[in-house]
Amino acid sequence: MQEQGNQGSPVPPPYPHPIIAREGWPFLGIAGVVSLAVNFFCGLMWALPFWVITLFILQFFRDPGRAIPDDPQAVLSPADGRIVAVEKARDPYLERDSLKISVFMNVFNVHSNRSPVDGTVKQRWYHAGSFLNAALDKASLENERNALWLQTRSGADVTCVQIAGLIARRILCYVDRGAALERGQRYGFIRFGSRVDVYLPPDAEVKAALGDKVFATETILARLSGHG
């Protein structure tokens, strides 16, 4: 069952473009200029497909502010999308048994990635790989991916993995080992359809179910038990 946490007050955006993601401005600028040029020289009918592309780029790179649930033990969704896996699995990065929750993003979701917990980045791994449909289970181990090991203040270990998809060709991650992240803090972006896997301690209490529609920062995926 999907759970929305108690809504706290919206946090100030930690980056300078809170409505349209900074990653989208080059694409939006080029598309806008082309659309205007075709519109001016050839007329609206010829320019209409280019305006449609511009609007698609605009919606793809939207990046609205989000409110953070008050619960400090909550594991928040790192991305907008749909839950495609809630299962016991082996964390391939920390070599441990874990609870795995996966969020699949289609091209109409917001693609900004946000930290699921308050914690310190203990390690970061990048793996080149394939570009299979990110909704498939094997995408977790075969696709291009970037993983962060986050350790909370209470000592819980959380692994958050950005995974490229069938169309996605660029994973962006702006933090590295030693960085301190807060719940809901923006740390990366994946362009054009992808997936994020979260590996949690096996005793975490699941709050989201297969098929749920989730929203980055605002949806609680699980709750951590006491650690440390």
Using the coordinates above, name the CATH class of the largest domain.
Mainly Beta
Q: What's the count of strands?
A: 17
C-alpha-based Rg, rounded: 18 Å
Note the total helix count: 3
The helical percent reads: 10-25%
Low-confidence stretches: 1-13
Distance between the termini: 28 Å
**Strands across the major sheet, in which order?**
12-8-9-10-14-6-5-16
- What's the overall geometry? elongated
Compact overview of the structure:
It contains 3 helices and 17 strands. By secondary structure, the chain is an alpha+beta fold.
Write structural notes for this entry.
- By secondary structure, this protein is α+β, with helices and mostly antiparallel strands.
- The protein has 2 domains: 22-60; 73-223, Distorted Sandwich (Glucose Permease (Domain IIA)).
- It has helices at 25-42, 44-60, 139-142, and strands spanning 3-4, 7-10, 67-69, 74-76, 81-91, 96-105, 112-114, 119-127, 145-151, 157-164, 170-173, 180-181, 186-191, 194-200, 205-206, 213-214, 219-223.
- An 8-stranded antiparallel beta sheet has the order 12-8-9-10-14-6-5-16. Strands 1, 4, 15 and 17 form a 4-stranded antiparallel beta sheet that branches. Strands 7-13-11 form a 3-stranded antiparallel beta sheet, with no helix packed on it.
- Helix 1 (25-42) runs antiparallel to helix 2 (44-60).
- The protein is elongated, with a radius of gyration of 18 Å.
